């Protein structure tokens, strides 16, 4: 574990098939977290929608809780029992504005091993995507966009930068987190099969290579309900861009050691972050292109 000489921190990535049944989902997630803790992981990652995947908007909104609700209380107990950090990537959160907006936040919560909530990042890029006849998502119809990027958090595995799923398509947020000190970027996800098979791994590897961070991506897999199937392929990429861990099909775990000496070597050898030309990119992130 961190601090013990010679031993690198181990992280665990959980892959699950969430359904609309919160109780079943908690049982499945808790089983994986306990297994990961027994194997010596210090930080365990759960995907977007670890709490549930609703079968329609009404159900999704109806099942949502606040950050102080029962479900996150149980996860805090789990973190304490197991003595692990928990990245809960994509909790359906009823925020304080619920009574007025009737929309939720897609909230990535980080718990420390005392069960304390040390960060909450609300998804800033919402997935409104329409592939004719194949994929139709309009996350903004039931979700409010988060207002800010959250500074990376120190964990025993390294400084962790929080994003969620569709954020993966925006290199700007990964570079902002990298600049703010991130050593690990994490993208808990529920990708579609269509977009996942084309884009998932290449996007994750690109984010790792350009930011020179570890990238950890816990994913939903398989059939969440009658009308939804998720791509899976949870994985960990190192700062060189190599896939160092990957889940097989179906629910399960994969593990990776985080080697920050290696990360620093990669950053020394190809110092892209001191070669940047911010004088040239002024408006690249500025807004809609023609
Ligand atoms: O709605 C929930 O309950 C949980 N949230 C999601 O599943 C979100 C919003 S619909 N899914 C994605 O962002 C998929 C992105 C994707 O597939 C891509 O970028 O290609």
From TrEMBL:
<dbReference type="InterPro" id="IPR045254">
    <property type="entry name" value="Nit1/2_C-N_Hydrolase"/>
</dbReference>
<keyword id="KW-0378">Hydrolase</keyword>
<protein>
    <submittedName>
        <fullName>Deaminated glutathione amidase isoform X2</fullName>
    </submittedName>
</protein>
<dbReference type="InterPro" id="IPR001110">
    <property type="entry name" value="UPF0012_CS"/>
</dbReference>
<comment type="similarity">
    <text>Belongs to the carbon-nitrogen hydrolase superfamily. NIT1/NIT2 family.</text>
</comment>
<feature type="domain" description="CN hydrolase">
    <location>
        <begin position="9"/>
        <end position="260"/>
    </location>
</feature>
<dbReference type="InterPro" id="IPR003010">
    <property type="entry name" value="C-N_Hydrolase"/>
</dbReference>
<dbReference type="Pfam" id="PF00795">
    <property type="entry name" value="CN_hydrolase"/>
</dbReference>
<dbReference type="InterPro" id="IPR036526">
    <property type="entry name" value="C-N_Hydrolase_sf"/>
</dbReference>
């Amino acid at each position: 574990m961190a601090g013990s000489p010679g031993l690198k921190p181990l992280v665990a990535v959980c892959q699950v098939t969430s359904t609309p049944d919160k109780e079943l989902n908690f049982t499945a997630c808790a089983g994986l977290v306990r297994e990961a803790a027994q194997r010596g992981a210090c930080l365990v990652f759960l995907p977007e929608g670890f709490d549930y995947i609703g079968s329609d908007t009404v159900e999704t909104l109806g099942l949502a809780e606040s950050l102080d609700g029962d479900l996150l209380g149980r996860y805090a107990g789990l973190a304490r029992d197991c003595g692990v950090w928990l990245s809960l990537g994509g909790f359906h959160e009823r925020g304080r504005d619920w009574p007025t907006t009737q929309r939720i936040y897609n909230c990535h919560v980080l718990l420390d091993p005392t069960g304390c909530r040390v960060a909450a990042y609300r998804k800033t890029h919402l997935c409104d995507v329409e592939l004719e006849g194949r994929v139709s998502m309009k996350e903004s119809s039931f979700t409010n966009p988060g207002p800010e990027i959250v500074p990376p958090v120190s964990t025993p595995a390294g400084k962790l930068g929080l994003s969620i799923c569709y954020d993966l398509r925006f290199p700007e947020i990964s570079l902002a987190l990298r600049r703010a000190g991130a050593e690990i970027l994490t993208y808990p996800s529920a990708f579609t099969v269509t977009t996942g098979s084309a884009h998932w791994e290449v996007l994750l590897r690109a984010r790792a290579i350009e930011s020179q961070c570890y990238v950890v991506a816990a994913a939903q897999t398989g059939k969440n309900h009658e009308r939804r199937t998720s791509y899976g392929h949870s994985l960990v990429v190192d700062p060189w861009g190599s896939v160092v861990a990957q889940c097989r099909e179906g629910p399960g775990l994969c593990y990776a050691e985080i080697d920050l000496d290696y990360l620093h070597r990669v950053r020394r050898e190809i110092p892209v972050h001191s070669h940047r030309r911010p004088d040239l990119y002024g408006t690249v992130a500025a807004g809609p292109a023609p």
